[in-house]
Amino acid sequence: ESVAAIRAIGTNGLPTLLTMLGGDDSRWRVQVVTLIQDTANVDLSELLAEAVHRRARIGFQVLGRSARPAIPRLAAFAATSDPALAERAFLAMLDIGGPETIPPLLKVLTNSTPARQILAANYLGQLRSQARDAVPTLVQALSGSDVELRATAARALGNIGWDAPLAVPALTSTLADADSRVRAVAAMALGAFGTQ
Question: Of 18, 20, 58, 123, whose CB neighbour count within 10 A is largest?
Fold first, then answer.
């Protein structure tokens, strides 16, 4: 029933979904809900932001590619200083999918903190071949200073599996990385290219 309702509302529901995704609970609200739950033995967890975020994600999943008009706002969320909001935005863009999600993720990958860059690289990898335009930027990330980013970029390149002439030499060079985990991930990523 709710899936049919979301589909019937369609893109008219995007402003509401974005508001739901971006909202957060005040400390006061959490304390009041917790007090009522403890006192009255009633589950009010669906009133908290986490449940609202989950429902917004379901909305984006149901709408899929038709939710593309939300991408600019989601990109702004992804660039915010709130890491939880940024992750929710990344997940929503992943739910939407398609090539329109690539530029905002690339922007975060090149112009953000290492933690955000890691998230962006991870989600680019999850988009698989849709993210083939990200290969040059991910190759650059292999030489970054952050170990986790290098490992995530290598994994993403393997998941994407495109542009072997650029990716394979870069991954091969990464086999000499100072970090053993980065080397292992690069070796696994090279396996995705087979004999290319």
Answer: 123
* 122-155 tens-digit pLDDT: 999 999 999 999 999 999 999 999 999 999 999 9
Summarised one tens digit per residue, pLDDT across range 58-85 is: 999 999 999 999 999 999 999 888 889 9
What confidence category does residue 196 fall into, taking pLDDT thresholds of 50, 70 and 90?
Answer: low
**139: exposed, middle or buried (C-beta count within 10 Å: 0-12, 13-18, 19+)?**
buried
- 3-state SS assignment for residue 58: helix
Q: Nearest Cα to 182, choosing from 194, 192, 170? A: 170
Number of H helices, E strands in the chain: 12, 0
Dihedral angle, C-alpha 159, 107, 50, 7, nearest 10 ° = -80
Locus of tokens 């929710």? 88
Nearest 10 degrees: Cα torsion 173, 175, 177, 181: 150
Place of tokens 């929503």: 92
- How many other C-beta atoms lie within 10 A of the C-beta of residue 151? 23
